[in-house]
Amino acid sequence: MRALFSRVRAVWIMWLLLGSGLVAGCAPQPGLLPFDGPVDKVQTVFMATSRNQQVAREEDGTRPEFGSGRGQELHFGRYDMSVPPDRDPGALALPTAKADPARDFLMVGSERYQSEAAFIAAVNRALAPLPPAKRHVTLYVHGYRASFAESVLNTAQLAADYHLPGPVVLFAWPSADQLTHYLYDRDSTLYSRDQFVRTLKALTKTRATEVNVIAHSMGGFLVMEGLNRLVLNRDRATLNRINGVLLAEPDISIDVFRSQIAGLDLNRLDLAVMVSGRDRALQVSSLIAGGTPRLGERRNLETLRRLGVYVVDLSQFNDGTLIGHTAFQNSPELVSLFSSGRLVQGIEANKGGDNIAVQALNTVGNVTLLIAYLPYRLTGQ
Asked: What's the rounded Cα separation, in Å, for the pair 236 and 67?
């Protein structure tokens, strides 16, 4: 009984922390602000969503075309977002009522596609000018507690900061965007599993020479459920077109993950997991789940390596919040390091060899170390 009360108290304290004004809980809700003036750079975000369609709120200038409800069909579209110049890597200022292209990501264009075929054709048009070696498509899946507008903004920021080659596609599943709706969000990932698989299959039908998937937090659970569905359906044609999957601080039970990767050929598919020892959101999730470790916690590092997974330890990087759940996207040092390509180059050069350590300078001039741990199947251990 004492252990039960301790767990309840710990969860209560952590939820207070997550919802306090010390973090993003009281921040204004982001919107997609339209802008028709000159901008410095444009990042296109293709989109597929299983959210419900809703009427735009014209009075405040935003266009939240999709809400938090679960839609009955899969919608496709495109958003052209301006990228503010002279912005620190990882920085994302939420747009205010007055559009400022020097500070904000603003919507300078958009289009809805009426069919999957039209969506595939649009992605192919974006691929056409690129040389074959750079005809990559990246599919990004957002995490827990994300509005539609926020997911579009985060995708644009991620694509711009990481210099992702080729078209970038957002899969927006129906998150409630509410602190207390954790179970609603988890159910929404399961609800969206078939729509995610359909989106992934559509991208493998494009002329892309490489298809990669990035997922954050609870979005990782959706991605792994989708891959498992492809395995169960024996859809090797689609699986063989996927080159790599990156799960950033994923909110998945380690036991569930073991079952999800069963049947995946990890000698062909590069599967990497970003873990952290300072992610308090995953600690809360673990407490809610009765103490079951979450995949993105650093304590799973050795287990993941034995399972054949690449592991990137983010523990020394800070995202500027008390929660520490978005370092992969909001840590300036980490974003700069990844966008430089040094870590990927090191992994490619050392497959079958040692783990990779890359140094980065933090904002106060101290050295911060990022370590990528190779699967034991590659190190011979």
From this structure: 34
